[in-house]
Amino acid sequence: MSEKFFNNKSNNDSIRKSANASCSGNSAAVCAVDTDSAAAYASDSYAPEAITSYNAASSESAAGAAVRERKRRIKPLSEQTFKNNFMFCAVMSNESICREFLEMILGIEVSHIEVCKEKCFIYNPVYKGVRLDVFVKGDDGKHYDIDLQVSETPIELRTRYYHSQMDMEMLETGEGYDELAESYVIFICDYDPLGYNKYVYTIQSCCEETDYSPYNDGIHTILLSTKGENESEIPSEILKFLKFVSADLKDSDKDFGSSFVRRLQDRVDEIRLSRIMNERYSAMIDYRKVWEKEAREEGLAEGKLEKLFSLYQKGILSYETVLNDCCESDSERASFMKMTKDPEVPKD
Prior knowledge:
disordered C terminus, two-stranded antiparallel ribbon
């Protein structure tokens, strides 16, 4: 959007009214940014003031301290892009936008859907639960999970676990396995998750002994990467969308030549200017500060890496926060990265 557009009072008022009307017209499950679950929003640009560092303050040079202070600055909502987790959830919770996204990625017509933002699956407190950024149910029973990944984290086992939790949600006691609907886990990654320089990775089960014919278990995993190099092999609309996802604040408002991207840009603008959404964003930041202060105190009190890994699993600390602000040495960082790549899988 141009500077002239944002300086126009009538345009600003129009967008504010549109944003507020959109929020009031949707159900709480679709539109509300619930502060009770706000600690789970991992902002890609937010490094909390409460967790300054495990490094000794005396060892920091003045220049280093200045860099860390800039890094800890909390960006206002007006400076966040689509790939900020708060912004992503707020935009994609719009049912019309979400449906158009699914149709673009899957190449199929999607009828009415129900969007549930920040869906949590916790069936037993002993085992690890999951939190899905955007969870979608279709009229045909199909389930969709749409997640944003901006940090390079192990993804293959995560998608497996997400599918298993979604399957448990589908069946009630006494129902047969034929009641299981198809499930789709879609990760939008701001990096290359598999390292083959592709924009889109489509993963489905097959049988090796029958010339890799499809094994129709109804499980579909799609990984989107902003770092692909095979532009001629994918639809232009998907390519333009991924270019928009990877754009920084300055470039995120440019014309990508896509009507869908323009819808996303307009929605981002509405959210940035919405008083309600700014209040929710501020409440989310305050909520995270409290949780992360407690997390730091707990992490200092006992087995550091084990505690940090536990807090990371619970969604209290982000991957980047642990590596950049909590680990004191390269060996600690390497140990934590190994823990996240080789998590202990609960046994029956």
